[in-house]
Amino acid sequence: MMSLKVEVFSSPGCAKCGQAKEVLRKLALELGGDALE
Question: What's the pTM?
Answer without folding.
Answer: 0.54
